[in-house]
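Tokens for chain A. Residues wanted.
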């Protein structure tokens, strides 16, 4: 059984910074990809940033240059440093673990990020 536990998030003014963290526990096989997705009210869940166990990263265009994803493979943790936050970054952020073999997809419970203008 794999469990993802998120921390961080909260309320911040536009231009501020927040850091999200996620720790995975259980049977975690590599290769895998860990990352963050977000869902704003009335919108579909969208990719924010991911990082594979091999080091490859992927960012949404809307966060490039502002957000940085990092991970520790040994500890199975992934972090998202969010700078220069904008009101449109307001959403529930979900941690994701995508295992290649066996194919498994896991989600955290979500953490709210609210950016006030």
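Reply:
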């Amino acid at each position: 059984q794999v469990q993802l536990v998120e921390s961080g998030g909260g309320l911040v003014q536009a231009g501020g910074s927040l850091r999200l963290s996620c720790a995975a526990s259980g049977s975690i096989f590599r290769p895998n990809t860990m990352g963050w997705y977000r869902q704003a009210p009335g919108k579909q869940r969208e990719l924010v940033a991911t990082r594979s166990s091999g080091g490859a990263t992927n960012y949404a265009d809307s966060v490039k240059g502002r957000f940085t994803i990092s991970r520790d493979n040994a500890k199975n943790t992934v972090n998202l440093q969010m700078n220069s936050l904008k009101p449109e970054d307001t959403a529930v952020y979900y941690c994701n673990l995508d295992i290649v073999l066996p194919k498994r997809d896991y989600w955290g419970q979500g953490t709210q990020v609210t950016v006030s203008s």
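The chain has a mean pLDDT of 96. The chain is about 0% helix and 55% strand.
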